[in-house]
Amino acid sequence: MPIFDKELPDLEAYKPEREEQPDFDSFWTATLDEARQHPVDARFEPVDALLSTVDVADVTYRGFGGDEIRGWFVTPHGADGPLPCVVEYIGYGGGRGLPHQWLLHASAGRAHFVMDTRGQRGGDTPDRDPYPTTPSYPGFMTMGVESPETYYYRRLMTDAVRAIDAARTHPLVDPAKIVVTGGSQGGGLALAAGGLASDVVGVISDVPFLTHYRRAVDVADDGPYPEIKWYLRDRRGRVEETFKTLSYFDGVNFAARCAGSGLISVGLLDNVCPPSTVYAAYHHYAGPKELRVWEYNKHEGGANYQQAEALRFLKDLLG
C-alpha cells in the first residue's frame, strides 16, 4: 500500500502537544491505591507443559477491583535465580494461549510473566462486568468511555501494573530488573505500565496501540480505532467528552512518565496504528530510548526481526 500518513522527515519531527488533564496523576494514583487495597495474592501453580527446557506455572493474581487475573510464568528449567523478569502484555482480542507459545525470554535465561487480558477473545480471565457501563460500539474501545472511572482500559491498565507487583513476589525474580513488553495493544499497555510503575528498568513497545487517540481516529482505517469513530457517528454531542476520557489512557502521556530505557518500533505502512501516533509517543518518551523503523511493513512491524532487536536490547540492558 502507498504511504498514507506523514512523510518520514515530518514523522521524525512530529512531537504534538499532549492532551493531558490536570488531574491525570491524581486519577492514576487513586486508581492504583484503590487496587492495592486488595492483596495481590499471586499464586504460581506448576503445570506439566510437556516441555523439558523450561518450567511453567499457571498464575492467578488480583488486578483491578480484586478481580482474579490469569497468566503464565515461564523460567529456564531448574533456574535458582534471581532472574531478570520480562512482563508481557497481549494484543487486542487475544488471550494468554498455551505455554509453548512463550519460550523466547526463558530461552534467553530470563523469567517471563505473561498477563492474560480480561474479557477479550481467547483469554481465560473473565471481564467480571457488573462494572456498570452504558451502550457502546462492539469491541472494547468505547466500553464505559462515558467517564475515566468507568472506562474498560482503566481496569486493564491497572491489571498491567498489578502484574508487575505479582511478578515481584516470586522468589526467582530480581525485583530490581523488571522489563515490560508487548505489541499493539500490548505495546500500549507496556507504555502505561512503564509510566505508572516508574521503577521498571525497561519498556519494549512494538507498534503500540492506545496512543495519540485523536490523530489515530482521524487516520487509521483498519483495526480497533475506527470503533471510536463509529461510536461517535451516533453520539454527535459527545466528541470532546469522549476524547477527554481517552486522554487519561493515552500512551503519549504515559511515555512522558517512563524513566526506564525504551525500545519502540514502528511500521511506516501501518494503517492500524498509524506511524504518526507511534512517533508521538516516541518523541515524548522521557527515558533513554531507541526506535526501530520498518519502512515497508504494516502492523506486523519487524515481527521476528524485531524480536531479535529486543533480545539484543535486553542483553545490553540486563546482561
UniProtKB/TrEMBL annotation:
Q: Please report the stretch or stretches of sequence annotated as the Acetyl xylan esterase domain.
A: 1-316
Q: Show the segment(s) annotated as Disordered.
A: 119-139
Quote any Pfam family the record assigns.
AXE1
Note the InterPro entries from the entry.
AB_hydrolase_fold, AXE1_dom, CE7
Residues of the signal sequence?
Answer: none
Q: Where is the composition biased (Basic and acidic residues)?
A: 119-130
PANTHER family for the chain = CEPHALOSPORIN-C DEACETYLASE (PTHR40111)
Its name, as the record gives it, is Acetylxylan esterase
